[in-house]
Amino acid sequence: MQNVDQYYPTSGRVILHVDMNAFYCSVHEAEDPEQYKGKPTAVAGSVELRRGIIVTCSYAARRLGISTGMQVQKALRICPSLIVIQPNFHLYRKYSNAFMQIAYSYTPLLEAVSIDECYLDITGSRQFGTPLEIAGAIQRRIMEELGLPCSIGVAPNKLLAKIASDLKKPNGISVLRLRDVPDILWNKPCNEMFGIGGKTAEKLRKLGIYSIGQLAAADEKMLVDYFGVMGSWLKRAGNGIDHGIVNPEREQSKSIGHTTTLPRDVVGLAEARPILLNLSDQVARRLRKQGLVAAGVQLTIRTPDMKTITRSRQLETPSESAEDIYKTVCEQFSKHWKGDKPVRLLGVTLQGLSPKEDSAIQLDLFDYERQPKKESLNKAMDMLRNKFGENAVLTAGMLSDSHSARLRNHKERGTSLQKDNLESVDPDKT
Questions:
Q1: What is the mean pLDDT of residues 367-388?
Q2: 182: cis peptide before it, omega within 30°?
Q3: What residues have CB less than 8 Å from 309, skipping those under 6 apart?
Q4: 84: part of which helix (H) or strand (E)?
Q5: H or E segment and range at residue 4
Q6: Lower CB count within 10 Å: N or C terminus of the chain?
Q7: Binding residue per annotation — 116?
Q8: Catalytic amino acids?
Q9: pTM for this model (two decimals)
Q10: CA–CA gap between residue 380 and residue 386 (Å, rounded)
């Protein structure tokens, strides 16, 4: 093999950011290329009602004017031939695990940041070739073995690697070095910098800072006075500087949350209950997986006009139980939300997390007698889901009346029923 040391810095690191392109749609295309390959497709929550929101769409759909966040009804007016697909999160997780296993074979320093993207520190991976050769090999294998396109950024830090992966889509590889920052980034508006949202960009404009180059040259003290500690980060980001490391073992979560954009507007607690139970069940499972208990619960509600409210409440005692979480968020919903106001998004976040073994959990006599059975049941349910997928175990409360009727019908025919997915969907950034 050629000597590749010359391609690596004598100091510093080499970071890759692997970003799957139109991930959900690409997965369906890989599963059924005859039906979906090269066609305008979109994943959305509600196909039948046509009132859902586009979660992501294929590049063929994007070229026709379809975009993430668009209502399905509007998308179908723009493109009547659009194929709208309901989400299949079990399938997405399967492909996510598969592409990350490919990436992991080149370095153990892999940090998964979402279902469709990860960072890799390949500084110690010289035996596999140059950084571009490694990026090319990962991209090629993901396409050949899984049928999925991805874009990869190559850079000396995570921030620049993330930005680089967005430069060429779909299926591109881009290198972004510190010395490239002035030419490539400084003429762009601030909101095109990863980590700077619309509100922050608006605040920067009020300070006379419109471009990333102006941000890089701005007085740090002024930024700190205006933004607090974030001001120093903004100054560093403008200059392409990031000291974050690729951490394969993420620090203990400060919170665990799950949100879902609903396929249709929900009105009243009765309609919200199965969704809140599903969210409570999912965050509780993640909590147990990390061996933690939660001291507080936050409910998030967003309206169709994108107004968001959050309400938090402490639990009577730290808990890992979906039952406790569900009871609390239902009480919060009833207390803080009028029954006739529509809801488009719901979220449940657990706060005040601590290791279970370090928590003194007070139980009354009734709970004391029930606790071993509840823990055994939770372990059994978690084991079944780990082995057979999220849909392996459902509680009756997760099903709406129509779902319950379907369940009875399926039971009569001796078949099984999978629940409709109500999981959180992050619009893909590709």
A1: 50
A2: no
A3: 300, 301, 302, 336
A4: strand 83-85
A5: none
A6: N
A7: yes
A8: 117
A9: 0.62
A10: 10
